[in-house]
Design goal:
elongated; alpha+beta; five-stranded antiparallel β-sheet; Alpha-Beta Plaits; 10 strands; about 55% helix; three-stranded antiparallel β-sheet; about 270 residues; Helix Hairpins; 3 domains; SH3 type barrels
């Protein structure tokens, strides 16, 4: 077949498929726009109905995924692809992919478990895993949980890793106790140090009156007497209380002459003579 016949053949094919390709592109663009609008509308509807934000986010991600699959099947039908056969092939492919991505499907199943048992919700302050990754829950998606840290980082943790680790919901009971320990010297007055810590707590605008703050002797260490306190606050003010207490207790200890000791070592020199 000479070059002119090839050019004629492929030019005809291009003319035949050009409208279909253009229509498919338009369908995809418009389809994705409509899907985004539907998902947004669904989110707003669930919000108005009082649906939990965490559940609403999870359902919206599932709706978006299903609608996009349906859109791609519709586009395939425009090119004359038998969608029934395509679905069968797609299903078989998904089985193979599912076996290859067993862990990913496990994360999706873990996401369902998180929706059922609800160990935390969007907005909760949580610690997850052995390294105690801490942050505010920003979203629970089909495959992962997103945390937002104090320094504005986004930590994305696979749902399977979440359910397979210890979960500490710091704000799960509505109020947060901020665990603090201050070491003072053995020669310092315990009651005086206790009074200073409580007075600093009273001046902090975020610490609640109830439950009342207390100060106890938690440990008699090698070089210090450790005083522990647990002021309570609302979850949004956890870090504010922590930083306020750490700074101002140190300042007041300095002003009152209360020392914060550090480990020391006595070395006895013995002369060989």
């Amino acid at each position: 077949m000479d070059a002119s016949k090839l050019i004629t053949k492929y030019s005809g094919m291009a003319m035949d498929y050009a409208p279909k390709i253009a229509l498919a592109l338009v369908t995809l663009i418009v389809g994705f726009w409509i899907i985004a609008r539907i998902v947004s509308f669904a989110k707003k509807g669930m919000a108005k109905s009082g649906t939990d934000l965490t559940l609403a986010t999870f359902i919206s991600s599932i709706i978006s995924m299903l609608l996009k699959v349906m859109l791609l099947l519709s586009v395939a039908a425009m090119f004359g692809i038998n969608t029934t056969s395509f679905i069968a092939i797609f299903s078989a492919l998904m089985v193979g992919v599912g076996m290859a991505l067993n862990g990913t499907l496990g994360h999706a199943a873990a996401g369902v478990l998180l929706m059922i048992f609800k160990p935390y919700k969007v907005g909760d302050l949580v610690k997850i895993g052995g390294n105690q990754t801490m942050g505010t829950v920003d979203g629970i998606n089909a495959f992962n949980t997103v945390l937002k840290t104090l320094d504005n980082k986004r930590i994305i943790i696979a749902n399977g890793n979440v359910t397979g680790n210890d979960i500490t919901n710091v704000s799960g009971e509505g109020l947060v106790g901020v665990e603090l320990t201050y070491g003072i010297g053995y020669g310092d007055d315990i009651d005086k140090a206790r009074k200073v810590i409580l007075e600093v707590g009273e001046l902090c605008p975020h610490i609640l009156k109830e439950p009342a703050q207390g100060v106890v002797v938690a440990n008699l260490g090698d070089s210090s007497v450790d005083l522990a306190t647990r002021p309570f606050c609302h979850p949004d003010h956890y870090w504010d209380v922590l930083f306020y207490m750490q700074e101002n207790v140190k300042k007041q200890f300095d002003a009152q002459g209360i020392g914060i000791p550090y480990p020391t070592m006595d070395v006895n020199m013995v002369s060989s003579n």
